[in-house]
Amino acid sequence: QVQLVESGGGVVQPGRSLRLSCAASGFTFSSYGMHWVRQALGKGLEWVAVVSNDGSNKFYADSVKGRFTVSRDNSKNTLYLQMNSLRAEDTAVYYCARDSRGYTYIFDHWGQGNLVTVSS
Amino acid sequence: EIVLTQSPGTLSLSPGERATLSCRASQSVSSSSSLAWYQQKPGQAPRLLIYDASSRATGIPDRFSGSGSGTDFTLTISRLEPEDFALYYCQQYGSSPRTFGQGTKVEIK
Lengths: 120, 109
Prior knowledge:
Chain A is mainly β. Chain A has no helices and eleven strands. In chain A, strands 2, 4, 5, 6, 9, 10 and 11 form a seven-stranded mixed β-sheet that branches. Chain A is globular, with a radius of gyration of 13 Å. The model of chain A has no long low-confidence stretch (mean pLDDT 96). By secondary structure, chain B is an all-beta fold. Chain B is 0% helix and 49% strand. In chain B, the strands form two sheets. In chain B, strands 2, 4, 5, 6, 9, 10 and 11 form a seven-stranded mixed β-sheet that branches. A four-stranded antiparallel β-sheet of chain B has the order 1-3-8-7, with no helix packed on it. In chain B, strand 7 and strand 8 form a beta hairpin. The mean pLDDT of chain B is 95. At the A-B interface, strand 5 and strand 10 of A face strand 5 and strand 10 of B.
């Protein structure tokens, strides 16, 4: 079955960097667009970034543009989110999610989530 | 940006009752039906229930149904089961930026 397992979260100081990973299994990773979606504690969902199946196209929410970089390694079935210049408002649970077909922004499978806390 | 407003904020119902959740868009959703519904339980990731406004995702029971187009959408749970008490989000994916509603909590009365 489809599995998405995030790692790399933790506590980081404002202005520092962190990289999240999402290991995929149970499907042909290289055939699907992949997303990052975040959720501040007790708050709603916010789409963060998407990368196309071959990694050639990437799009970002305005709130993270220029600071976050999404990438993927299809040989390792792994999705990444490099987060630089972190701010307190980036504190959230970060989910990786599979696009249901191409990149329609329909999220049909989600990882378990990984908490990132930005605090001094 | 399309703002999605979900109502009510909280729905208090008993098992076996019918739940009707509303999602209203601030402007028409592109292609009229580019709307999804997700269910989220405490400490868990969201789960896709409905996409394209009315299509059930794989493995979703037929007591869940979606309807609507344009700016007004509805998620209906025909008979609430104990496992259906959760938070529900709508999401539009027809226009950039893709946005979510603020959620409706379905709680046990």
